């Protein structure tokens, strides 16, 4: 190897060593994030919470298309007249489940929020995460979200005083009374219909 090549090799070696040592000496400690980098960057929220407080939220049936405009055969029946009944502090148009073609409203097969005998129901949750107390069958509160005692709130004996309240302020009748259904258009034992397919 010629002396000229040796000088170039040594100069390159010394320069590389000097630069490498300098950059290592000046390096900051390596910090690795605990979160993925795409999560660390701020992202504008894209979640919206909506609370529906429209009149249909008062209905005792769902979907809303199960309203009084359809009889049990699915035929349009724009007007019907059911006897007025005073029940637990309010007037209701109390329709007969069979004579007025309203049995479908009291079957969980079509009405998704009506009692379903195949399900086990628990009392609703309070804001603190605990549950409200179980209600006795003979003294059930109409409002399941209260700690008040019967006497201060409306209660019903499900053995003899039940009527299926479909709306407590129904838009479809002349006086905006409630709308309810039951056998014989009167209070009686709690009931439900099962669909026979």
Structure description:
By secondary structure, the protein is of the alpha+beta class. The chain has two helices and six strands; from the N terminus they run H-H-E-E-E-E-E-E. It has helices spanning 3-26, 37-40, and strands at 84-87, 90-96, 140-141, 155-156, 164-167, 178-182. It has a four-stranded mixed sheet, with no helix packed on it. A two-stranded antiparallel ribbon has the order 3-4. The protein is rod-shaped.
Fill in the keyword field for this structure:
two-stranded antiparallel sheet; single chain; 12% strand; alpha+beta
Summarize the structure in short:
This protein is α+β, with helices and mostly antiparallel strands.
Element order, helices and strands?
HHEEEEEE
How many H/I helices?
A: 2
Radius of gyration: 36 Å
Rounded average pLDDT = 77
Shape annotation: rod-shaped
Q: Please report the total strand number as a whole number.
A: 6
- Number of folding domains? 1
Low-pLDDT residue spans: 69-79
Beta content? 5-15%
Strand order of the largest sheet: 1-2-6-5
Biggest β-sheet: count, sense, barrel? 4 strands, mixed
Spatial gap, N to C terminus: 100 Å
Helical percent range? 10-25%
Task: Assign the structural class, choosing from mainly alpha, mainly beta, alpha/beta, alpha+beta, or little secondary structure.
Answer: alpha+beta
How would you summarize the topology of this molecule?
Elements: H1 3-26, H2 37-40, E1 84-87, E2 90-96, E3 140-141, E4 155-156, E5 164-167, E6 178-182
Parallel strand pairs: 2-6
Antiparallel strand pairs: 1-2, 3-4, 5-6
